[in-house]
Specification:
Chain lengths: 219, 269
């Protein structure tokens, strides 16, 4: 079993190294071919453009009959990626995996996932709500994250207000909304986490009564 | 006649009945009498029992069980395909014909953009067995055949190869298949690409009529499936046939599961 698995993984790593056009890289961690780090540039014309994304790869014992395990190492603001753990919601990493897929083709699928989020099947429900409620604000936050965590050079991005993103911007919240609650004396980090959870953004603000926010803040 | 001795059957069946967990059952079993299947339906539907009795009295008395892990159709197909070669009047000739049939399915795989290095590796174990059946000097026995198919790596490779052949055939004939491609969970129509990606290529996804039809046609063989459902059939069983060709492969279907069905008193016609 493991002979064929080793042969296949080694071939995949070699093929990927030979291919200069895809810009996908696969490197070994600690010289084990079964624990790898994949990386690719953020796709153009997306908030992730200019960023460089690293993915933790584990090859299970039954590979290629069982799907490869992947999660983002680089923090990504995306409906199908957990902003806390990097876990990814993508069908081919679960029940649509097929042994004819490869590490490279799977990393390319991750790159496409960054282009085309699937908010109806989210990994991160809060991010998905943000995406569905206020697209412009979502895009701005995703750009802030790309700059902060994925070394996206600010020059390649359309200018965003302010030099460094504030904690409110990183959470995709309007500073004025955050302030209206910190002015009441609540701790800033707590306000941001509650407003994020309630999706206190754009038109949705009018749907959320102040008392609901206060109730959460007092918890 | 089956070439298996009682001792060989005992060995191949080890673990089949004692292990309750489906994932540790053999991938494919030595033949059991159809009566053993009947035993499972002892207190069940009269209709199903009637169909089992009809099969028994018409000589269909042997069942080769496949593990119920979603790949059972492909594993049952493999055994039936290879048994047919072994039991034919001229196994070497049949093996060569089978080898050619597989080779003819390869261009569609290329056309479907599957990586040839990858699918050739999955095909190798199947081609190796077919080649060994073409040898006049020491062709494998039924015992050796089952033993190879109980090897997880070989069996899984063959399952993947057959899934890719099936997928490539559906992709190459979209107009034929499109009207029948439905999601088994939502019953909504799927595109050819979505259906192949979600329901054919991944391991563990059960085969339905579209997949069976595609594989039968891709490998130019008939497949005859005896349906053990509760539908009313007077004096008989519903046989559903796929593809065409003499001497079709025969499978037994119970809702959600396929096994191989053969006649023990096999007569060469």
């Amino acid at each position: 079993m493991s002979d064929a698995r080793l042969r296949r993984v080694q071939k995949e790593i070699k093929d990927c190294a030979k291919d200069k056009t895809s810009q996908i890289s696969i490197e070994m961690v600690d010289e084990s071919p079964f624990h790898l780090i994949g990386a690719f540039p953020g796709p153009p014309d997306t908030p992730y453009e200019g960023g460089y994304y690293e993915v933790d790869i584990h090859i299970p014992d039954a590979y290629p009959f069982q799907p490869v395990k992947m999660k983002f190492i680089t923090k990504v603001y995306h409906p199908n990626v957990s902003s806390a753990s990097g876990a990814i919601c993508l069908d081919i990493l679960k029940d649509a995996w097929s042994p004819v897929l490869t590490l490279k083709s799977t990393l390319i699928s991750l790159q496409s996932l960054l282009c085309d989020p699937v908010p109806n099947d989210p990994q991160d429900a809060e991010v998905a709500k943000h995406y569905l409620t206020d697209r412009a604000s979502f895009t701005a936050t995703a750009k802030h994250w790309a700059q902060a965590y994925a070394q996206a050079p600010a020059s390649k991005q359309k200018p965003v207000p302010g030099k460094q993103a504030s904690d409110a911007e990183m959470a995709g919240l309007a500073e004025s909304n955050v302030q209206s609650f910190t002015d009441m004396g609540f701790e800033r980090a707590k306000v941001i986490s509650v407003l994020k959870k309630l999706n206190y953004r754009g038109n949705n603000v009018s749907n959320i009564h102040e008392s609901t926010v206060l109730e959460e803040l007092f918890k | 006649m089956s070439t298996l001795t009682d001792q060989e059957i005992m060995k191949l069946m080890e673990g089949m009945d004692t292990q309750q967990d489906v994932m540790v059952k053999p991938l494919i079993s030595a033949p059991v009498p159809l009566l053993a299947v009947r035993e499972e339906y002892k207190n069940g539907s009269e209709t199903v029992l009637g169909k089992l009795d009809w099969l028994q009295s018409n000589g269909w008395d042997q069942v080769w069980r496949a593990r119920g892990d979603g790949d059972c159709f492909y594993r049952a197909f493999t055994l039936a395909f290879l048994l047919r070669i072994l039991r034919s009047s001229d196994p070497a000739l049949s093996a060569n014909l089978a080898y050619d049939a597989i080779q003819r399915a390869l261009p569609a795989m290329k056309q479907a953009n599957f990586d040839s290095d990858l699918y050739e590796e999955f095909l190798d174990p199947l081609l190796a067995i077919v080649r060994s059946l073409a040898e006049d000097t020491a062709p494998p026995t039924e015992y050796a055949l089952i033993q190879s198919l109980q090897d997880a790596e070989k069996s899984n490779c063959i399952v993947v190869a057959l899934r890719l052949i099936t997928s490539a055939y559906i992709r190459a004939n979209p107009t034929t298949f499109e009207p029948f491609l439905l999601s088994p969970t939502t019953f909504l129509p799927l595109t050819v690409d979505d259906f192949c990606r979600q329901e054919v290529e991944p391991c563990g996804k059960e085969a339905d009529h579209a997949q069976i039809m595609a594989l039968a046609e891709a490998l130019n063989t008939g497949i005859l499936v005896a349906y053990l459902d509760r539908s009313d059939v007077k004096d008989g069983v519903n046989w559903v046939d796929f593809g065409h060709g003499d001497d079709p492969l025969t499978l037994l279907y119970r809702p959600g599961h396929y096994d191989v069905l053969t006649k023990d008193t096999f007569v060469v016609s």
